[in-house]
Amino acid sequence: MTTHVLSDTRVLTARSLTHIVRSPDTIITTAVTPIVLMLLFVYVFGGAIDTGSTESYIDYMLPGILLITIASGVAYTAYRLFLDLQGGIFQRFQSMPIARSSVLWGHVLTSLVANLVSVAIVVGVAFVMGFRTGASVGAWFAVIGILVLFTLALTWIAVIAGLSAKTVDGASAFSYPLIFLPFVSSAFVPTDSMPGPVAWFAENQPVTSIVDTTRALFAGEPVGADIWVALAWLVGIMAVAFGFAMRIYRRRAS
Amino acid sequence: MTAAAPVAAAAPAIRVRGIEKSFADVHVLRGVDLDVTQGSIFALLGSNGAGKTTLVNILSTLLKADAGAATVQGFDVAADAGDVRRSISLTGQFAAVDEVLTGRENLALVARLRHLKDPGRIADDLLARFSLSEAGDRRAATYSGGMRRRLDIAMSLIGDPPVIFLDEPTTGLDPQARIEVWQTVKALADGGTTVLLTTQYLDEAEQLADRIAILHEGVIIRSGTLAELKRLLPAAKVEYVEKQPRLEEVFLALVGDPARGGATAAEPTRKESR
Ligand SMILES: Nc1ncnc2c1ncn2[C@@H]1O[C@H](COP(=O)(O)OP(=O)(O)OP(=O)(O)O)[C@@H](O)[C@H]1O
Ligand SMILES: [Mg+2]
């Protein structure tokens, strides 16, 4: 049965990608909120924010906006998984001789594709609004790698939510705190402008290291130790969320 | 009638021994025993909440039993779940189709997941067989309840599994569609497939089943052929001397009249007045 993991995952990924292609509004919706935030921050608040650097504000904030895009995008992953569980198609898959984990991987890979498309749309709009980067090809790959890891980490959290939710709203509620996390980080204002305890939280939560690393990569500057902190967070969150998700899945699937 | 068959004539396709299952404090199944012969149609009757779906889910490896053992085609449902899944197909109580996909895509999806060659042709054949060819390229969300059910059953036939579970396959279907499903089920059994179906419609069991079992309060209280079950009631009641008891009467006498709140099985001999 394990020999079919890849082909089963491919078939199931194609299935849920078809869902997205047939309701592209989920991708548009995912991209709209970050774009509106970007407009607000750049054209309304941005002028009053002192980032303490010479780069334009959109360059400063784009990494945080991209994380918000992904954090809101994974809510749809939880939603789609929840609908499968409700609709009975999940039970059909579970009673068939297919590789068990491929049912989840199909959703996870779909989440990755959908979020990268949303991110691409947001980056496109940012370019129109004046975002400029001196990033080398290598730096671009590093940025993409970080965003892929971030998407996977949050997607496994979304899988936990989708598997354990009792209602549709419950399935996506987990994403709200994730969406707000970048606001209490270095994403929009420097953390040293915040009052003591808040600044301490902002300095030590995962988003700050991820944002700082991405910002440095976009600016073509050395990333320093931040990248290791960021990678440790990303891999750690992903491993823990994956472990929990698989445990819930196995319980649910037996 | 045809006296008790010798026990070991052929290994039963489905064998259930002492299966128990509780949810929280509800003891749903309290020791279910049954055997289903290869190539036969077996109907499981029971009121709402009797545990029919629970039993079907255990047999199709979706749920684990708390106690007891069950085999399907000789494979243990707990220990050899993978082999069981290769031997069965489940049509659950609620149609399990992908609403976003078309009928054809739903069928091809299952064919691909069963690693069959030429999923497109398999889909077309089944669409034709279930009178869905015209609707084949429409999303399943636009299907009527009956069409959805037909698609659901068609999806379960892909790969010709030797054992098929149908959980209330005709609930919500119009008489015409029910008869079509019945014909399909009969054709399956004629082709050697073992069918275990649950139903609330007693006439469905009368029409289709080689053997019928009544699940009540967690156990199989009676099982046998239709004729055997009918013999449990005196053939001629005072008011209805000319009429054989219908299965419905047998059922209600055994499980108690639901109007009186699921009394214990009334003994045929002290059948209440009317
Ligand atoms: N996952 C569950 N959690 C808690 N209770 C459950 C669960 N599944 C079933 N039950 C309970 O177990 C009992 C049997 O349910 P089941 O669905 O097996 O009955 P059924 O015979 O299929 O009924 P119906 O004819 O209405 O489909 C019911 O009381 C039901 O509430
Ligand atoms: Mg049921």
TrEMBL record, chain A:
One GO process term, biological-process aspect: response to antibiotic
GO CC terms of this entry: ATP-binding cassette (ABC) transporter complex
Domain ABC transmembrane type-2, residue spans: 25-252
InterPro entries according to UniProt: ABC2_TM, ABC2_TM_bact-type, ABC_2_transport, Nod_factor_ABC_transporter
Bilayer-spanning residue ranges: 27-49, 61-82, 103-131, 137-161, 173-191, 227-249
GO molecular function: ABC-type transporter activity
Keywords noted in UniProt: Antibiotic resistance, Cell membrane, Membrane, Transmembrane, Transmembrane helix, Transport
Protein localization: Cell membrane; Membrane
Recorded topology in the membrane: Multi-pass membrane protein
Family classification: Belongs to the ABC-2 integral membrane protein family.
PANTHER family: NODULATION PROTEIN J (PTHR43229:SF2)
Name of the protein in question: Transport permease protein
Organism: Agromyces binzhouensis
TrEMBL record, chain B:
Topological category with respect to the lipid bilayer: Peripheral membrane protein
Location of this chain's protein in the cell: Cell membrane
GO annotation, biological process: response to antibiotic
Any single GO CC term annotated in Swiss-Prot or TrEMBL for this entry: plasma membrane
Domain ABC transporter: 14-242
Keyword terms: Antibiotic resistance, ATP-binding, Nucleotide-binding, Transport
Top-level division of the source organism's lineage: Bacteria
GO molecular function: ATP binding; ATP hydrolysis activity
Protein name, entry field: ATP-binding cassette domain-containing protein
Organism expressing this protein natively: Agromyces binzhouensis
